[in-house]
Amino acid sequence: MSDTPVKHIRTPLSRVRGLGAAHSGTGHFWRQRLTAVANIPLTIAAIVIFIMLLGRNQAAVAQILGSAPVAIIMLLFIASITMHMRIGMQVIIEDYVHDEIAKLVLIMANSFFTIAIALTSAYGILKLSFGL
Amino acid sequence: MAATKAPAARPLSPHLQIYKPMLTMMMSIVHRVSGFGLYFGTLLLAWWLIAAVSPSSYARFEWFAGSIIGRLILFGYTWALIHHMLGGIRHLIWDTGRGFGPSEREWLAAANLIGSIAITVLLWIFGLLAMGGPL
């Protein structure tokens, strides 16, 4: 487009894609900030809910946790923290595990663990809500 | 064939043990460690949520949460959660390009630590009062 001489060896396509050397761009960086911001009000709400439920019996806990506003807040909380911790743990793995196979296995295990935590928690909340 | 000589011991780049521990450095480490702890602490959160489905499973969870080990883990979890959240807010401030000055970063690190301890203690006082006593 312009007449300025090319000062870099990256192809225009590579520059437009903006994925960089790790081939994943800034997706993780952005999602870590996005979930961090979401975690703040959701964690405060979850702490308030938890303190409200302290000392109550199971029937009361099940009823309150299953009520629509509390269940929705807890589902959002679970979704946001598990997404956040999946990225965070991947960063730790990439920092300290240099063996390629071990790194891939741990990154897979990280995905399995965080998704399992998310869906197990969601199952509990939905069961309380819908009483299945 | 000439025996290969062992490679000369080369200097490594300085790592943690070379530096005098500083508050900002310790806070950085604690941020990562607390995040690591919170990761596995979600097992308790998931357990609590699926235990709430039936009285017998909830009784098992309450037994664990009320035991000394359970209480210690929950106290540590509370502190890690609050510390990581305040540390996260500090990171979000840094993301805007603010808070990097010599006095600001020390002040933020101290506020992070003092704030997390104070809020954790307050939450536990609230929690124990909500349960109707310390035991």
In short:
The complex is a heterodimer of chains A (132) and B (135). Chain A has helices at 12-17, 27-53, 58-66, 68-96, 100-130.
How would you portray this structure in words?
The complex is a heterodimer of chains A (132) and B (135). Chain A has 132 residues and is mostly helical. Chain A contains 5 helices and no strands. Chain B is an all-alpha fold. In chain B, helix 1 (23-51) packs across helix 3 (68-95). The longest helix of chain B is centred in the N-terminal third of the chain and has 29 residues, at 23-51. Classes of the chains: A mainly alpha (132), B mainly alpha (135). Chains A and B meet through helix 2, helix 3, helix 4 and helix 5 of A and helix 1, helix 2, helix 3 and helix 4 of B.
As a whole number of angstroms, the C-alpha radius of gyration of chain B is 22 Å
Strand content of chain B: under 5%
What portion of residues of chain A belong to β-strands?
under 5%
CATH topology of chain B: 3 helical TM bundles of succinate and fumarate reductases
Oligomer: heterodimer
Secondary structure class of chain A reads mainly alpha
Could you give the order of the helices and strands of chain A? HHHHH
Number of domains of chain B: 1
